[in-house]
């Protein structure tokens, strides 16, 4: 696996670190140089709250290499409370119970175990909200 | 800009070509296009391909292909734009000829997808998505389209069964295309009972992978010898991009790059959607067919399935779609698909479309989508009397 790459992305994967554009006020996840909303320089850094709701979802039965052990698993588009959409696996829920619009929150989970040394990549997934917003 | 003619076309069947390599397939289609054009020397070859590095461990396809078709010395390029690599190569070839820089240019789309196991091919395909923020979550390419389709059903109130006609139409046409991967018609019952692969996408919503190559030989109109055949010219060529990640779209249910590309191509050709006689659209998944019809001006937002349900997309409808089977039945060898669309449109315009020949085929729209809407290449081809 790409250790440097995963390390580089740790703030996004562990803390949902994004930005809020100082020009147009929109929240951006992940961070980037140019705001996709207004085209001005993006920033400063902001952490997303981790709260959101399901915009859409599916269940992957035929996974890509490296994800076979987890299949089947649910993946969703989650609309974060701050505005950005994010693609993430859903966890701690039966596929049959997932609904568009349901409130979810970010948790840290294992994404995959990889390579000859079995290195583990952790990152965000989303589960049904336990706490009221 | 010079006017550009598609002087020759060639294609291999889409199959599991166990006996043929990537280079063999590219050469077979390329040489067929050169023979069809009566051209023996080319200035350049643009090879559209997505996965050669990942699946065949082979890059440098431009020079390799030039060598394998007996054209050492010609310029060679590999053009990559995910599943739109084929049309991207065609556009690059078109620009080279239209600009006056080069005269005889070959565009080839080629892909070999059956060398590797299912999960490996699935992993390679998902490299068209955002690796850091989509791929890492274990989403497959089918999965990304399923996310779009589920929300589309929710938003516009369609049922899954309302999409069946896209697949039924594609299979009906593919059954009469000797180069198609799937040549059996399907019924509404087959569609409803098909195995679910990534809800709400079932097996008959999705196009099959395969191996194949298709090619076109381009010349400037002043150097294109006229013959008994109608001449096929490139009347519009346009491209546009959108975010690679679906979640980064302003509106995940609208193909803005298709909309932009179509608008630019219509303006170049001086036509609108009402002058388009048929549309070779990118039905990698039935949801994409609906979104393409909306983005290119044939249906209102959220109304794409209505055209199919009304029968408008059939060969005898007002806007025939996927006339040789589309990705769904012809097959979807990703980097080759855009060139298959162009070759099939040229067959229609020349009156060589066999059992699927349209009564009226003067102006064609072809559109090739890379990623789930990120890289979109749109072309308008026209038949011209000499």
The two chains with the largest interface, and their residue counts, are: A-B, 35 and 36 residues
Mean pLDDT of chain B: 97
Q: Span between N and C termini of chain B?
A: 20 Å
Biggest β-sheet of chain A, characterized? 5 strands, antiparallel
Residue windows where pLDDT falls under 50 for at least 5 positions of chain A: none
Number of β-strand runs of chain A: 8
Helix content of chain A: under 10%
Quick one: biggest sheet of chain B?
9 strands, mixed
What structural category characterises the helix and strand content of chain B?
alpha/beta
Q: Bin the strand percentage of chain A.
A: 35-45%
Structural class of chain A: mainly beta
Strand order of the largest sheet of chain A: 6-5-4-7-8
- Number of alpha- plus pi-helical segments of chain B: 13
Q: What is the overall silhouette of chain B? A: globular
Residues in β-strands, percent of chain B: 15-25%
Termini separation of chain A comes to: 37 Å
How large, in whole angstroms, is the Cα Rg of chain A? 16 Å
Quaternary state of the chains: heterodimer
The pLDDT mean of chain A sits at 93
Helix count, DSSP H or I runs of 4 or more residues of chain A: 2
Describe this structure in words.
The complex is a heterodimer of chains A (133) and B (386). Chain A has 133 residues and is mostly beta strands. Helices cover 9% and strands 41% of the residues of chain A. Chain A contains two helices and eight strands; from the N terminus they run ααββββββββ. Chain A has a five-stranded antiparallel β-sheet. In chain A, strands 2-1-3 form a three-stranded antiparallel β-sheet. Chain A is globular, with a radius of gyration of 16 Å. Chain A starts with a helix and ends in a 5-residue tail after the last strand. By secondary structure, chain B is α/β, with parallel strands linked by helices. Chain B is built from 13 helices and eleven strands. In chain B, strand 10 and strand 11 form a beta hairpin. In chain B, helix 1 packs across helix 3 and helix 4 crosses helix 13. Chain B is globular, with a radius of gyration of 19 Å. Chains A and B meet through strand 4, strand 5 and strand 6 of A and helix 5, helix 6 and strand 5 of B.
């Amino acid at each position: 696996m790409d250790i440097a790459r995963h390390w580089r992305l740790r703030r996004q994967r562990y803390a949902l670190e994004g930005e809020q554009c100082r020009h147009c006020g929109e929240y951006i996840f992940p961070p980037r140089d140019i705001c996709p909303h207004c085209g001005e320089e993006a920033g400063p850094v902001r952490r997303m709250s981790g709260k959101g709701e399901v915009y859409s979802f599916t269940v992957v039965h035929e996974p890509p290499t490296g994800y076979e052990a987890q299949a089947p698993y649910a993946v969703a588009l989650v609309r974060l409370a701050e505005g950005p959409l994010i693609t993430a696996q859903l966890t701690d829920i039966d596929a049959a119970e997932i609904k568009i619009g349901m409130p979810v929150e970010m948790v840290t989970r294992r994404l995959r175990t990889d390579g000859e040394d079995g290195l583990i990549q952790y990152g965000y997934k989303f589960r049904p909200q336990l706490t009221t917003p | 800009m010079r006017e550009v003619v598609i002087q020759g076309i060639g294609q291999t069947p889409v199959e599991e070509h166990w006996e043929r390599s990537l280079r063999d397939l590219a050469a077979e289609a390329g040489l067929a296009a050169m023979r069809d054009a009566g051209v023996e020397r080319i200035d350049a070859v643009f090879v559209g391909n997505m996965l050669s590095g990942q699946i065949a461990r082979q890059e440098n396809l431009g020079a390799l292909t030039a060598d394998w078709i007996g054209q050492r010395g010609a310029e060679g390029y590999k053009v990559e734009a995910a599943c739109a690599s084929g049309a991207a190569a065609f556009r690059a070839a078109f620009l080279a000829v239209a600009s006056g820089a080069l005269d005889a240019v070959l565009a080839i789309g080629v892909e070999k997808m059956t060398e590797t196991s299912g999960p490996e091919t699935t992993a390679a395909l998902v490299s068209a998505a955002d690796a850091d923020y989509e791929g890492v979550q274990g989403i497959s390419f089918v999965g990304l389209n399923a996310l779009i389709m589920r929300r589309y059903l929710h938003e516009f109130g369609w049922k899954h069964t309302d999409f069946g006609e896209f697949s039924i139409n594609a299979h009906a046409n593919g059954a009469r295309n000797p180069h198609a991967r799937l040549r059996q018609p399907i019924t509404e019952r087959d569609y409803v009972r098909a195995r679910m692969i990534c809800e709400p996408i079932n097996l008959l919503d999705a196009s099959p992978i395969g191996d194949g190559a298709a090619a076109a030989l381009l010349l400037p109109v002043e150097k294109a010898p006229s013959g008994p055949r109608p001449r096929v010219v490139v009347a519009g060529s346009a491209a546009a991009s959108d975010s690679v990640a679906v979640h980064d779209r302003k509106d995940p249910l609208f193909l803005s790059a298709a909309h932009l590309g179509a608008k630019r191509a219509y303006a170049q050709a001086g036509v609108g959607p009402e002058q388009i006689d048929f549309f070779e659209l990118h039905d990698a998944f039935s949801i994409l067919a609906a979104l393409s019809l909306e983005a290119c001006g044939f249906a209102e937002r959220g109304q794409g399935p209505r055209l199919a349900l009304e029968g408008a997309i059939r060969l005898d409808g007002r806007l025939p779609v996927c006339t040789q089977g589309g990705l769904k039945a012809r097959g979807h060898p990703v980097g080759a698909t855009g060139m298959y669309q162009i070759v099939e449109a040229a067959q229609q315009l020349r009156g060589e479309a066999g059992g699927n020949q349209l009564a009226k085929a003067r102006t064609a729209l072809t559109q090739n989508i890379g990623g789930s809407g990120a890289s979109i290449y749109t072309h308008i081809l026209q038949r011209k009397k000499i």
